[in-house]
Specification:
Layout lengths: L1 H18 L5 H11 L1 H22 L7 H14 L2 H15 L2 H11 L2 H12 L1 H30 L1
Helix pairs in contact: 2-6, 3-4, 3-8
């Protein structure tokens, strides 16, 4: 009697595992769109390199070749663009998530409440960038002061 109940249950359970496939690029596009990932990623990259480039352009770090600096900033932006890292991120998600998991996440993320939260976070990205740039600039200036003070004390 038990085998008549257990075997169908086991087959049902195993069929769910077998049919769980890798997420598709379309699923991942939708998932990351709902997360606001491309904009957030680009924003994070900007907030890291923008203050450094600004300080260098201002001459605070004694960079003489401003054209080279501009070219370097463009290369940093291109190197760390969403489109450049997207294949690696998608491969990571394809390795660690199933299509069914992503479908479930997409369904949850498509709810009105989640969309409202994501829209608010997206609208705050520029303010967040300014805050991160300010903190980064402050930390860089503190570092430069410590280095210069260390040099002065050694003399």
């Amino acid at each position: 009697m038990i085998k008549y109940i257990f075997v169908p249950f086991l087959l049902f359970f195993m069929s769910g595992i077998v049919h769980a496939g890798q997420p598709t690029d379309e699923q991942l596009d939708k998932f990351f769109e709902l997360k606001g990932a491309p904009a957030a990623y680009e924003s994070a990259v900007r907030s890291i390199y923008a203050p450094i480039v600004s300080m260098m352009k201002a001459g605070n770090l004694r960079v003489k070749d401003k054209e080279g600096l501009d070219a370097g900033a463009a290369q940093v932006k291109e190197t760390f663009s969403w489109q450049k890292v997207k294949p690696d991120i998608y491969n990571f998600y394809k390795t660690h998530y199933t299509d069914k998991e992503l479908d479930s996440y997409i369904k949850t993320m498509s709810r009105r409440e989640y969309k409202a939260m994501a829209e608010k976070e997206t609208s705050l990205l520029s303010d967040y960038d300014l805050m991160i740039q300010s903190v980064t600039m402050k930390n860089i200036l503190e570092l430069v002061i410590r280095i210069e003070m260390g040099k002065a004390l050694k003399k």
